[in-house]
Write a structure and sequence with these properties.
The chain is α/β, with parallel strands linked by helices. It is built from eight helices and twelve strands. The strands form two sheets. It has a ten-stranded mixed beta sheet. Strands 11-12 form a two-stranded parallel sheet.
Length: 412
């Protein structure tokens, strides 16, 4: 039977559109950054989802650096809105989706706070840990989960303590008033994770750390500073005697096994902390180290896209995140969302911000050119463009010229 070529062509086009639509829907809950150059050394899954420290901003930024600068494939996961909503909602503790990405991951980077994933999602974390794969935890990952669930032997509440070596203890520094400066632990100066790391500072305060043991390797301690200014001096008081651990390596016991695996944790990690180049470098170095790759002498951690982190703090306005309507793809390559600081945030001018939007104002006697294809060319028959121009701005004495031409395509 002969088929109409036009019918076949339309059928194929519809099939292709449908296929692309399905693939897009499957990825709507996550970001995937393929490794630059097309050769992924390892697959890193970065898990955001906290109410305070804006990991929905920092994890895409880190994923871009790891993928575009260092050849990792990166998948970034988010806490999304309730009832299947597709907008990012860090306040939804049950909103983690896409954890099945861990099934093919070589490294997990997590920065969640008191999440309660479903049993279906939790099993992927359990399998990852049972396989003995490495974990990097930042800031609130010490209290990443909360509730009655478990990862087949590690309860939600014990994830930080058992996998990273520490749980939630306290704010050791004065929250939003005192910063944290990294001080390399004596004897660890040549550790690969600290390669090229000289000056770590974060405006988030130092956390209290009390559960590490002699089996843990402290790489850096956190000195409480007088203020949030990166140049502020260290506090001279009992707060820094001794200084709390800021970054360390921990050996965790795999669920259902006696064998062990390795994690790295830093209690720095607010999105504004990652303005600091050497904090970014330390996390990138840890990714190399934990995936058995040679750590560069000075890892390139320059931002792939502009980075406009908002200050940390809780946002309790009802429907704030629904109204913000941020989606994972808004943080994709070439994109940089900018959100306002939470109410009551201190001024912190040590970060980039997007240029303010300005209004375009037509000046008297200006000349305006209309450039386009057939649609614009047809306007020459009606003079509607010039009519609208002069009726809207009658005092400006503007001049218009239509350069529309059939089949022309405007390119910038």
């Amino acid at each position: 039977m002969k088929r109409n070529p036009m019918f076949c062509s339309r059928w194929f086009s519809l099939f292709l559109i449908t296929l692309l639509s399905v693939n897009f829907c499957q990825a709507s809950d996550r970001l995937v950054f393929e490794a630059a150059g097309g050769k992924a050394a390892k697959h890193v899954v970065l898990i955001s989802g906290d109410e305070e420290y804006r990991t929905e901003e920092s994890m895409p930024m880190l994923g871009k650096i790891l993928s575009q600068r260092h050849g990792f494939k990166c998948t970034v996961l988010f806490s999304l809105g309730p009832d299947g909503a597709e907008y990012i909602d860090p306040n939804n503790s049950a909103g983690l989706r896409g954890l099945e990405a861990l099934n093919h991951a070589d490294l997990m980077i997590i920065g969640t706070r008191f999440r309660a994933p479903s049993a279906e999602q939790s099993k992927h974390v359990a399998e990852f840990l049972k396989a003995g794969k490495p974990v990097i935890g930042i800031r609130t990952a010490t209290h990443a989960f909360k509730g009655n669930g478990s990862f087949e032997g590690i309860s939600f509440n014990d994830f930080g303590l058992k996998v990273l070596g520490e749980t939630w203890v306290s704010h050791h520094g004065n929250h939003k008033k005192e910063g944290a400066r990294g001080v390399v632990e004596l004897g660890q100066e040549s550790h690969p994770i600290l390669r090229g790391v000289k000056d770590v500072f974060g405006p988030s305060d130092v956390y209290g750390v009390t559960h590490l043991t002699s089996a843990d390797t402290i790489l850096m301690r956190g000195a409480v500073t007088e203020s949030l200014d990166p140049k502020s001096t260290n506090v001279v008081s009992e707060k820094n005697k001794p200084m709390q651990a800021l970054a360390w390596l921990h050996t965790y016991v795999r669920p259902g096994s006696l064998s062990t695996a390795t994690s790295f944790c830093t209690t720095a990690g607010a999105s504004v902390d990652f303005v600091n180049e050497d904090l970014r470098r330390m996390v990138v170095n840890a990714a190399y180290f934990l995936t058995d790759r040679e750590v560069p002498n000075l890892a390139d951690v320059s931002f792939v896209d502009p980075y406009y982190p908002s200050f940390y703090g809780f946002i309790n306005e009802p429907n704030y995140w629904k109204a913000a309507n941020l989606h994972p793809e808004d943080f994709g390559l070439g994109k940089t969302p900018s959100m306002p600081d939470p109410k009551g945030s201190p001024e912190w001018p040590f970060r980039d911000k997007p240029a303010p939007k300005t209004s375009f104002v037509l000046q008297p006697n200006e000349r305006i050119a209309l450039v386009g294809g057939a649609l614009d060319e047809r306007r020459n028959l009606f003079a509607d463009f010039k009519t609208l121009l002069h009726t809207r701005f009658p005092e400006q004495d503007l001049q218009g010229r239509n350069f529309g031409w059939t089949a022309d395509q405007v390119g910038l």
